[in-house]
Amino acid sequence: MAVTVAILGRPNVGKSTLFNRLIGQKLALVDDQPGVTRDRREGRAQIADIEFNVFDTAGFDEAKRGSLEARMTDQAAEAARLADHVFFVIDARAGVTPVDRQFAERIRKLGKPVTLLANKAETKAVQQQIHEAYVLDFGEPFPISGEHGEGLEHIYAVVKPLVLADRKANPAPEAEEVEEPFDPDVEPAPRPLKPLKLAIIGQPNAGKSTLVNALLGEERMLTGPEAGITRDAISNDWEWGGRKITLWDTAGIRRKGKVKEKLEKLSVTDALRAVKFAEVVVVLVDASVSIEKQDLTLCDLVAREGRAIVLALSKWDLVEDKNAALRKVNEIMEDILPDIRGLSIVTLSAKQGRGEDKLMKAVLEAERKWNIRIGTGKLNRWLEEQIQRNPPPAPSGRRIKIRYGTQVNARPPTFALFGNQLDKLPLSYQRYLMNGLRETLHLEGTPIRFVFRGGKNPFEDKRR
User: Fold this and answer.
1) Which of 68, 267, 308, 419 has the highest CB neighbour count under 10 A?
2) Are 342 and 438 contacting, i.e. CB atoms less than 8 angstroms apart?
3) What is the DSSP string of 303-325?
């Protein structure tokens, strides 16, 4: 077990900035506006020769029970409960405020060891305000600057004894080298699969966080009737059916023309970055309001990024005529997005716990197709049949020739076609080939790439 530290404090004291500094990446959104962070975020911190886990949390806030702010505070308290140590952060420029005093009492009641950090202490002018922090009764306040990386030696001095004690209590097992004789008749043991990178995206209030909580089996993400609760793209390590998965919950992505505020732009950028990191993307659609143009735009975006994709219809329990609704979605997808024809469409209701297993089976099947490798011989036999059934056109009286093809990459499946005048191959014929690949080689719903190259068929002499 690794040592875990939670960063707590009132809003806008620089908790996320400190978190980013400790983990060495700008994962948490940072802005001058207070209350940017909502869900707790976990990262792996490193200072010199020590490593530990760290939680970034929403600011403690006095709010009405059941409100969004109160739920954010509950998330921060849960992070503190799970942590071994608490960093209570104050703003050194502002000094100790009445709100800091209130939250000091709340943190004290958590019963965790606490270190007081006076952030934004880049100048000597704040020394007086720092000394005032002794009144909080958490011992010496350490001046730091999360933005400039100053004062990290204080954090190192606090955490290192915890890390050393943890290493002593939980020593790493020594690896035993076992030399097994080589046997050509025995298949080598398969290598363990890397964790699947899975992102869930969609419009605001589509139910993404509710779905993530249902999959994880705990109230990990903030949910509620308010649209746009999630701001950061939060990753969660998880396991389903023995397969390790890194699962991203993301902020809702509205139509580009509606995104005007700086904070929402940052949230959308973070969500799009999760798509780039993912291998499979679930586009979640609120089925109670049917599929919209923005949902189709998100599907097209994922396909253009070359990611495996699954379309999930959430809140299915609220749909009255389910057969008509599903038929309409299928027709729209076939008409508007033919490049991902045969896409898996899954219906679910996360609140009622229905459809999660069906969704994950579709996700793993989409990943399998995304990683598929097709032999050159099989591919060219298929290609010959396609060309005989429907030869390429002859622009300017000279027929386009496709001599042979080979798969040059996977993730997504990418095929090189060799021949002449392939730069003039119409898009309609490319789609004819793509649809044939999907139907014959069972690549339904998978983005497919073609690259065109000139050159002689290396199999021509053998054929003669």
Assistant:
1) 308
2) yes
3) HHTT-EEEEEEE-GGG-SSHHHH
Query: Which of 243, 293, 299, 246 minimizes the C-alpha distance to 274?
Result: 246
* Whole-number pLDDT of residue 189: 52
What's this model's pTM, rounded to 2 decimal places?
0.79
- Report whether 413 contacts 446 (CB < 8 A): yes
Strands 401-409 and 414-420: antiparallel
Confidence band for 194, pLDDT divided at 50, 70 and 90: confident
Q: Residue 165 and residue 374: Cα distance in Å, rounded?
A: 52
Per residue in 279-320, pLDDT tens? Answer: 999 999 999 988 999 999 999 999 999 999 999 999 999 999
d(CA 36, CA 32): 9
Q: What crossing angle do the helices spanning 427-441 and 376-389 adopt, rounded to 10°? A: 130
User: Model confidence at 261, in pLDDT bands (50, 70, 90)?
Assistant: confident
Kindly state whether residues 387 and 357 are assigned to the same domain: no
C-alpha of 300 from chain center:
18
Whether the CB-CB separation of 15 and 59 falls below 8 Å is answered with: yes
Residue matched to tokens 């989409």: 366
Range of the domain at 132: 4-169
- What are the strands of the beta sheet with 114-119, ordered from one edge? 41-47, 50-56, 4-8, 85-91, 114-119, 142-143
Q: Tell me: do 292 and 366 sit in the same domain.
A: yes
Contacts of 269 (CB under 8 A, 6+ apart): none
123 and 231, same domain (yes or no): no
For the record, the structure tokens of 385 come out as: 């049949």
Q: Which of 57-66, 365-374, 402-411 has the lowest mean pLDDT?
A: 57-66
Read off the CATH number of the domain in which 451 is found: 3.30.300.20
Residues 55 and 24: their CA atoms lie apart, in Å, by 14
**How many angstroms separate the CA atoms of 366 and 309, rounded?**
7
Total Cβ atoms within 10 A of residue 397: 5
Strand partners, 418: 404, 453
Peptide bond just before 412 cis, omega within 30 deg: yes
H or E stretch covering 283? strand 280-286
Q: 142: which residues sit within 8 A by CB, 6+ positions away?
A: 115, 116, 117, 118, 151, 154, 155
Model pLDDT for residues 160-171, shown as the tens digit of each residue: 999 999 988 888
Report the distance separating Cα 302 and Cα 309, nearest Å.
7
Judge whether 178 lies within some domain.
Answer: no
The Cβ-side half-sphere exposure at 363, using a 13 Å CA radius, reads 27
